């Protein structure tokens, strides 16, 4: 979609900065003499990616999230050390890579964000309404949830995506996600598939992953959640699905709803086996 | 209070590759609030400095043309393990933040 | 229109294999039930947007490839509902058409009621050679008028395509801009001029 004009100035600045970063990287890459071999080129591209990854502002959110995780908060003044993300209370490393999954205590298939909300409710005493009131942050209203998600997903870097499909509820969530992915509705008759079921297409200049192909799902899913440079914010999968529905001209999906969790389940299962290397930096 | 910076110092020989990620809105003052239509006041880092073991070694002036949550990178020679870098920024609201890292 | 009615349409058409469809009907029904539970109205985007019409129901139900009899039936119905402009006056102001072609705004929940709905053309189509930021979901429309002329038949066909793409291709990805009310007659005339006017950058 076309950016609104109020953001154009800021976006131009960001592009300038990004351009400077690329120029610097190219200068580094061009330092060697002679024609580089394919392997050398690949190594330099990897190095450039590593540089970008190191400088990802998602780290700022992850650091804040880690502090939030460890700080006693809420009406019950509890930290999240007792929160079970699926691998046992307090275990953060690798937990995100195995979501969404069925959580027997909640009786629901939950993505990582729904699970964090569950812990905030049950352990810390926050109300569901408060958590859902303004989950997607802005500069003047930082979201604690985004920071917590940044912390938790960062701790799954290098882990294989492995959401469970053992239980019938988990398979039902996948099937529902798949159906919802194809559901056409609204004034423009759009579904997720309208934009994401062909190879090599784009809207304006934005390339569109073909999410009916495993390779594309893997590439897309292992980069999210992500820091969005154009928004200057860290964004979660709940946000990603929410904003797709906005662009589809649908009504708004409720935060942490079964519909959103099912779509995340569908994508996660399709990405199974890929190594999580997010959070990435997106335009 | 502002969030802490992320600072990395990596040593290759006696040259340290220092990278600093700062958490800051970096408002230009040229944007308008979507709801009220009022200009959003400028809020950006005006200067920052780097001290090596307490000695001032670098001072930078920055402006509103720098992105939100900016990253800065430097190469400094003559560094050894155990050296301590202190980075301090000050913004146009007079707010300031200092963080440090010890070269490993 | 409900799924039940679409199944009734299917049953009305002789010789169609309606029985194997039931499993898919269940999946579609489950998805719609979840959506009705999980979505909420916001701004101009009300829950009525989840009420499927016959075209949406049939395209959903047959994964965008419905039996040809059903396709013909519904396409004819959509074509019959196309409203052509007063007095055969197809062409408006190409400059206004260009602004509409550039705009992808409107109808999202974050758009206020005052936001003018754009034509979204460049999101999916190549048009003027000077605009490089074009999408590729739809076919290129570069030099549209120059290549095809402006015969009455072509004007009528193109009008119908913009007004209701489903009248010629039932499960097309393209929205039904006139049929859905997203664009009014004047706006479609401007977009038509953008495609056909010899002075328009599309044809230069």
Describe the structure.
The complex is a heterotrimer of chains A (283), B (104) and C (204). Chain A has 283 residues and is mostly helical. Chain A has a single domain (58-282), classed as Cytochrome Bc1 Complex, Chain D, domain 2 (Orthogonal Bundle). Chain A is built from eleven helices and eight strands. Chain A has helices spanning 8-29, 38-54, 58-70, 112-122, 128-133, 144-154, 168-182, 192-196, 214-221, 237-247, 258-270; strands spanning 101-103, 108-110, 202-203, 206-207, 226-228, 233-235, 252-253, 280-282. In chain A, a hairpin with a 4-residue loop joins β1 and β2. The two termini of chain A are 13 Å apart. The relative contact order of chain A is 0.14. Chain B has strands at 6-12, 15-21, 45-52, 55-61, 71-76, 84-91, 96-102. Chain C is globular, with a radius of gyration of 19 Å. By secondary structure, chain C is an all-alpha fold. Chain C is built from nine helices and one strand, in the order ααβααααααα. Chains in contact: A-B, A-C. At the A-B interface, α1 and α3 of A face loops of B.
Concise description?
The complex is a heterotrimer of chains A (283), B (104) and C (204). Chain A is mostly helical and 283 residues long.
Topology diagram in text:
The complex is a heterotrimer of chains A (283), B (104) and C (204).
Chain A: H1 8-29, H2 38-54, H3 58-70, E1 101-103, E2 108-110, H4 112-122, H5 128-133, H6 144-154, H7 168-182, H8 192-196, E3 202-203, E4 206-207, H9 214-221, E5 226-228, E6 233-235, H10 237-247, E7 252-253, H11 258-270, E8 280-282
Parallel strand pairs in A: 5-8
Antiparallel strand pairs in A: 1-2, 3-4, 5-6
Helix pairs in contact in A: 3-6, 4-6, 7-11, 10-11
Chain B: E1 6-12, E2 15-21, E3 45-52, E4 55-61, E5 71-76, E6 84-91, E7 96-102
Antiparallel strand pairs in B: 1-2, 2-5, 3-4, 3-6, 6-7
Chain C: H1 3-12, H2 22-38, E1 39-40, H3 54-61, H4 68-80, H5 94-102, H6 121-124, H7 144-148, H8 152-163, H9 185-196
Helix pairs in contact in C: 5-9
What is the CATH first-level class name of chain B?
Mainly Beta
Query: What is the strand arrangement across the widest sheet of chain A?
Result: 6-5-8
Structure classification of chain A = mainly alpha
Which fold name is given in CATH as the topology of chain B?
A: Immunoglobulin-like
Question: DSSP strand (E) fraction of chain A?
Answer: 5-15%
What is CATH's topology name of chain A?
Cytochrome Bc1 Complex, Chain D, domain 2
Low-pLDDT sequence parts of chain B:
none
Describe the sheet with the most strands of chain B: 4 strands, antiparallel
Give the H and E element order of chain B: EEEEEEE
Beta-strand level of the residues of chain B, as a percent range?
Answer: over 45%
Terminal CA distance of chain A reads: 13 Å
- In CATH, the homologous superfamily of chain B goes by the name Immunoglobulins
CATH C-level category of chain A: Mainly Alpha
């Amino acid at each position: 979609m076309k950016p609104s004009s109020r953001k154009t100035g800021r976006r131009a600045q960001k592009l300038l900065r990004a351009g400077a970063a690329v120029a610097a990287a190219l200068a580094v890459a061009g330092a060697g003499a002679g024609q580089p071999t394919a392997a050398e080129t690949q190594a330099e591209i990897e190095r450039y990616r590593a540089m970008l990854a190191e400088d990802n502002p998602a780290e700022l959110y992850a650091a804040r999230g880690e502090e939030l995780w460890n700080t006693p908060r809420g009406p019950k003044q509890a930290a999240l050390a007792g929160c079970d993300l699926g691998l046992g209370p307090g275990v953060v490393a690798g937990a995100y890579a195995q979501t969404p999954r069925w959580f027997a205590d909640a009786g629901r298939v939950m993505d990582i964000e729904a699970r964090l909300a569950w812990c905030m409710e049950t352990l810390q005493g926050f109300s569901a309404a408060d958590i859902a009131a303004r989950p997607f942050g802005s500069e003047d209203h930082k979201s604690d949830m985004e920071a917590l998600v940044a912390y938790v997903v960062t701790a799954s870097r290098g882990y294989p995506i492995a959401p469970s499909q053992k239980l019938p509820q988990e398979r039902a969530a996948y099937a529902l996600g798949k159906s919802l992915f194809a559901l056409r509705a609204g004034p423009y008759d759009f579904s997720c598939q309208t934009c994401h079921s062909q190879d090599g297409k784009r809207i304006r200049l934005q390339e569109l992953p073909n999410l009916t192909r495993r390779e594309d799902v893997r590439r897309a899913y292992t980069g999210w959640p992500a820091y969005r440079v154009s928004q200057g914010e860290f964004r979660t999968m709940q946000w990603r699905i929410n904003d797709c529905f906005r662009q589809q001209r649908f009504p708004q999906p409720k935060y942490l709803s079964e519909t959103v969790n099912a779509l995340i389940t569908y994508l996660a299962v399709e990405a199974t086996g890929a190594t999580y290397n997010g959070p990435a930096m997106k335009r | 209070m502002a969030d802490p910076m992320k600072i990395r110092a990596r040593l290759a020989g006696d040259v340290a590759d220092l990278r600093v990620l700062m958490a800051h809105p970096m408002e230009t003052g040229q944007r308008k609030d979507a709801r009220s239509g009022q200009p959003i006041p400028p809020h950006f880092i005006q200067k920052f400095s780097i001290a090596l073991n307490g000695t001032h070694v670098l001072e930078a002036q920055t402006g509103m043309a720098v992105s939100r949550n900016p990253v800065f990178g430097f190469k400094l020679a003559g560094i050894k393990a155990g050296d301590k870098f202190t980075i301090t920024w000050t913004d146009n609201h007079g707010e300031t933040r200092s963080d440090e890292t010890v070269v490993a | 229109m409900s799924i039940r009615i679409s199944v009734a349409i299917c049953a009305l058409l002789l010789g169609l294999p309606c029985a194997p469809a039931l499993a898919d009907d269940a999946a579609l029904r489950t998805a719609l039930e979840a959506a009705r539970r999980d979505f909420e109205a916001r701004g101009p985007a009300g829950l009525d947007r989840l009420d499927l019409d016959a075209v949406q129901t049939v395209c959903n139900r047959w994964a965008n490839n419905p039996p040809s009899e059903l396709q013909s039936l519904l396409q004819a119905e959509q074509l019959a509902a196309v409203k052509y402009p007063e007095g055969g006056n197809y062409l408006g102001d190409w400059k206004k058409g260009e602004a509409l072609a550039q705009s992808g705004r409107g109808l999202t929940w974050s758009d206020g009621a005052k936001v003018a709905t754009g034509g979204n053309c460049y999101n999916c189509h190549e048009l003027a050679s000077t605009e490089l930021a074009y999408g590729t979901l739809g076919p290129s429309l570069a030099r549209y008028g120059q290549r095809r002329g402006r015969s009455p038949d072509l004007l009528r066909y193109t009008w119908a395509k913009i007004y209701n793409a489903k009248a010629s291709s039932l499960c097309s990805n393209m929205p039904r801009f006139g049929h859905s009310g997203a664009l009014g007659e004047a706006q479609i005339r401007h977009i038509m001029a953008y495609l056909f006017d010899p002075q328009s950058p599309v044809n230069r």
